[in-house]
Write a structure and sequence with these properties.
coiled coil; two-stranded antiparallel ribbon
């Protein structure tokens, strides 16, 4: 037994099922449905490809080295602060 197309304004029998959303649609509505999905998917695929390209350009070793240098600088500054505090307190004794 064929199902009616679920679109209220359509009186045709459903002829295809959309595997994305599991809807039974007539051939005309199915084509519109596929076109709508594609119009949403293509920009999403483009964005994913752009992000993939950006990720492939990242040099993880450079990033790690950059932050290691920042940490080393912070470590040195902290040691200097502690040494200065130590010297001040030694002078107060």
């Amino acid at each position: 037994m064929s199902l009616s197309c679920p679109i209220e304004t359509c009186k045709r029998k459903s002829r295809a099922i959309c595997h994305c959303c599991n809807k039974n649609l007539c051939s005309d509505q199915f084509k519109e449905h596929v076109d709508l999905i594609n119009s949403r998917m293509n920009p999403l695929a483009d964005e994913i490809n752009t992000l993939d390209n950006q990720l492939s350009l990242l040099n993880v070793d450079e990033i790690i080295d950059k932050y290691r240098q920042k940490l080393d600088k912070l470590r040195h500054e902290c040691h200097t602060t502690v040494d200065r505090f130590y010297e001040e307190k030694c002078q107060e004794l």
